[in-house]
Amino acid sequence: MAETMNGAESLVRTLVAGGVEVCFTNPGTSEMHFVAALDRVEGMACVLFLFEGGATGAADGYARMADKPASTLLHLGPGLANGLANLHNARRARSPIVNIVGEHATYHRIHDAPLTSNIEGFARPVSAWLRMGTTAEAIAADGADAIAAARTAPGRIATLILPADTAWNPGTGVAPVPAIPERARAGDDALKRAVAALASGAPVVLHLSDRAVRGEGRRIAARIADKTGATLLAMAANARIDRGAGTVPIERLPYPIDAAIETLAPFRHVILVGATPPVGFFAYPGKPSLLSAPDAETIVLAHPEEDQIEALERLAEAVGASAEVAPDRMAPSAGPRPELPTSGALADAAIGQVLGALIPEGAIVCDESITTGRNFFGQTHAAAPHSWLQLGGGAIGLGIPMATGAAVACPDRKVISLQADGSALYTAQALWTQARERLDVVTLIWSNRSYAILRHELTNVGATNPGPKAIGMLTLDDPAIDWVSLAKGFGVEARRVENLADFVDVFRVSLGCRGPFLIEVAL
């Protein structure tokens, strides 16, 4: 007699049938039936992390490159809590994730065992969809609903809580995934307002993000700009921009508040396409929260959940834009590819030149550079075609896991992780996963041995004349972290460089290798 399929196996089979092919996990006792089911189901890869923040950050990076959800598998409320920061980042990036959290058996929760917690309370702030499983017979259908919720535009986190008995009791087989709604059409009134703004003669900025900064959206926006004289500007942080030679370059709104205000000051109309209104990351004494000019009109042409490409196409038609982008707008004619510097200090500008010259075609750049890399974007417009992923939610510790997930999604593409040293320490354990999975990731650690951004923020918020206690909380040099030893301890090949020539040489070597490689760049 055939063995009855339990709830866990029916859930895993439903996930695979619904296109969820990877599970990023750090499991525990409550999830063991799900873990066991992975051996009975073909088509689900399982990637282990030593810390749950690595698993959730990897699910974010994977979703950005695969354009579909992976699942996580986390252990009870504390495991979810460990992963919350990068779920916050994923929510801001609008990444689809099926987030599965184990729970005590339904009848055990009332006894308040030591790991009992309010999992729903932890999950709700980062979840667009949240459900507590109740029976093994229904858990596959719950999983199917989670897939549909995660894949609903613009991409959402769907959290399914999996009580242990809903996993071990008999299930009912694979459940079909409900129909996923198409992106909504942007409204006609918004289109009319955008057309009027572009015809007004006043300066207009098209502020873009989400699908509008991907290749097709940016090309349509460039045609509109060619016709109307509007300026293109991406949000300060974007989930993914496919860029480089042969694409339309676009600048980002600067992160520093004074520079952002100055950038937006000339514009009387701000048209949002897949973007949110430009606001400061933080409040600063005597400075505005909203960064556009006080008298500027903000027009939402298409919300993130709406069809931004179709809205841009309608706008292009309404203003009589050309069918093709003007040739002089395309990279590299918009700016020559940087040449490799042959001399000088190992400083930010020189590093940007090296990246612009050496980024290989098809690379995925995962950027958590923080202060060091603010100008790298402008120096790489004409690099070989590549994808650029950013930290959008502001919770540091995403970079190494995001690169890990991107490499799982695209095993045939070189991943380059641009990583500040302070934030790398939050999730350095993900280097071990890169080694275990033999992922093709080069991690560049900007080793200034400090939280350099916070030195700038002391001035920005008016906390001047910091003393030794304040400075001590912003430095990482006593003792200094030895990134080469740390990486090698996790199984990753590593080198430290202290001058520009060595950086060029070692970076070239790392690009020619297959597998994880870390370079500590002494700044």
Question: Topology, pairings included?
Answer:
Blueprint: H1 7-17, E1 22-26, H2 32-37, E2 45-48, H3 52-66, E3 70-74, H4 76-93, E4 97-103, H5 119-123, E5 129-132, H6 136-150, E6 157-163, H7 164-168, H8 188-199, E7 204-208, H9 215-228, E8 231-234, E9 241-243, H10 257-264, E10 269-273, E11 297-302, H11 308-319, H12 348-358, E12 363-368, H13 376-379, E13 386-390, H14 399-409, E14 415-420, H15 421-424, H16 430-437, E15 441-447, H17 452-460, H18 468-472, H19 483-489, E16 493-497, H20 500-512, E17 517-522
Parallel strand pairs: 1-2, 1-3, 3-4, 4-6, 5-6, 7-8, 7-10, 10-11, 12-13, 12-14, 14-15, 15-17, 16-17
Antiparallel strand pairs: 9-13
Describe this structure in words.
The protein is of the alpha/beta class and 523 residues long. The chain folds into three domains: 162 residues, Rossmann fold; 142 residues, TPP-binding domain (Rossmann fold, 3-Layer(aba) Sandwich); 175 residues, Thiamin diphosphate (ThDP)-binding fold, Pyr/PP domains (Rossmann fold), CATH 3.40.50.970. It contains 20 helices and 17 strands. It has a seven-stranded mixed sheet with strand order 9-13-12-14-15-17-16, with helices on both faces. It has a six-stranded parallel sheet with strand order 2-1-3-4-6-5, with helices on both faces. A four-stranded parallel sheet has the order 8-7-10-11. The longest helix has 18 residues. It is globular and about 70 Å long. The chain starts with 6 loop residues before the first helix and ends with a strand. Belongs to the TPP enzyme family. InterPro entries: THDP-binding (IPR029061), Thiamin_PyroP_enz_TPP-bd_dom (IPR012001), TPP_enz (IPR045229), TPP_enzyme_TPP-bd (IPR011766).
